[in-house]
Amino acid sequence: MSHKHGVSFLTGLSIGGVIGATSMLFLAQQSGKETRRQIRDRGIELKEKTEAAYAQVREKFEATVADLKTKLGKGTRILGEEAVLEKAVAGSVAA
After folding, report:
1. Cβ atoms of residues 49 and 13 within 8 Å
2. What pLDDT is stored for residue 86 in this prediction?
3. Are 42 and 21 in contact (CB under 8 A)?
4. Of 32, 42, 71, 80, whose CB has the highest number of CB atoms within 10 Å?
5. What backbone phi and psi angles, to 5 degrees, belong to 44?
């Protein structure tokens, strides 16, 4: 999951939770105390789901960054070796 898709998912999850909680307020056929308890419980549940999704996105993002650093490090070594070879070839041609 790319970083962009992870952010979109978290945004959608949050918006859906707010819409659901608001709908529940207007459609509830129960006491205010019971409604407030349900909203609190749903809020806690939404927070836990959001935190779990964020942790997954962050973990994948950090793995991708580490992978890119590794690949870039290898590329830098290769470029460094090519530069040394070019200098050696240029030195032998000039001699």
Report:
1. yes
2. 64
3. yes
4. 42
5. -65, -45
For residues 87 and 55, give the distance between their C-alpha atoms in angstroms, rounded to a whole number.
Answer: 48
Note if the pTM is more than 0.90: no
Instruction: Give which of 56, 46, 1 is closest to 22, Cα–Cα.
Output: 46
Helix residue ranges, H only, the chain: 3-27, 32-94
Using one digit for the tens of pLDDT, what is the confidence trace for 12-21? 877 887 787 7
* Cβ atoms of 22 and 35 closer than 8 Å: no
Alpha-carbon distance of 43 to 54, in angstroms, equals: 16
Q: What is the number of other CB atoms lying within 10 angstroms of the CB of residue 24?
A: 14
Q: Is the per-residue pLDDT at 95 higher than 60?
A: no
